[in-house]
Amino acid sequence: MATIYVNDLAGMHLDFWVARAENLDATRVGGACLRGPDAGAAQGQPYSPTQDAVISNALIERYRVDVFESGGRWAAELAGHDAAPWGNGATPVEAALRAIVAARFGDTVEDEAQALPRHCFWLAFAESGAEPARLLGHAILEAADMNAAVERARQLGMHPGSDARVYRVNDEDAHHIPAAMRNRLLTSQEAAALGWGAA
Q: Residue 174, Cβ neighbours under 10 Å: how many?
């Protein structure tokens, strides 16, 4: 088990802990949060408030979450609490969902050590043996270390070249990378927008 700050939860891990806060039967399988009577099997229903506006809007209304901009990011707190739990995030929804989890569990949660990757890595894929090097794509992956990031890219089928340059993204910069831009190939425009369009 590992102690994880709620404000570091993102993507399916945030979905999972929102489900826990809602007392839903849920698990993480194949990169997604699933719920239902057979949550650990293929019949499990996807549960993704980070991506589904219908779910997130209902939660924000029911928990009476106030969301506001703060220092270029978003912050959220539950109304009507003397010591209001709060969350922050790159988007209003992320901040609100983190506040909901914090209201139930506090500032940290105990998660399985391997369930929540600890770092972000920037991968630049290049054509093997090409001179000069020809870039084929970029991705931001969450993994425990550089080797695990490369292996995860292969497992996800997003390794278009046999050569990869891997860079650790510092934690402060990682907070500004939206969950929707992680763990997939980026377009050249997305890579350029993040300032890492060239390796």
A: 18
What are the residues whose beta carbons fall under 8 Å from the beta carbon of 70, sequence distance 6 or more?
88
Mean pLDDT score, 83-97: 86
The answer on pLDDT for 41 being more than 60 is: no
Same domain for 103 and 13: yes
- Distance from C-alpha of 191 to C-alpha of 184, rounded to nearest angstrom: 12
User: From residue 95, how far is each of 11, 43, 61, 185 by CA, in Å?
Assistant: 12, 30, 14, 25
CA 183, 187, 193, 199 dihedral sign is positive
Strand (E) positions, 31-162? 32-35, 45-46, 65-70, 73-78, 86-89, 108-111, 119-126, 135-143
> Measured between alpha carbons, how far is 70 from 73 in angstroms, rounded to an integer?
5
In angstroms, the CA 93 to CA 88 distance is: 9
β partners of residue 77 = 66, 86
For residues 69 and 145, state if they share a domain: no
* pLDDT tens string 114-139: 455 568 888 888 776 656 666 678 88
For residue 185 the two structure tokens come to: 């190939």
- This prediction has a pTM of 0.58
Residue 61 has pLDDT above 60, yes or no: yes
Lookup result for tokens 């707190």:
77
Q: Name the residue range of residue 65's domain.
A: 2-111
Given 95, 111, 127, which residue is the final one in a domain? Answer: 111
Question: Can you tell me the distance from the alpha carbon of 183 to that of 158, in angstroms, rounded to the nearest whole number?
Answer: 9
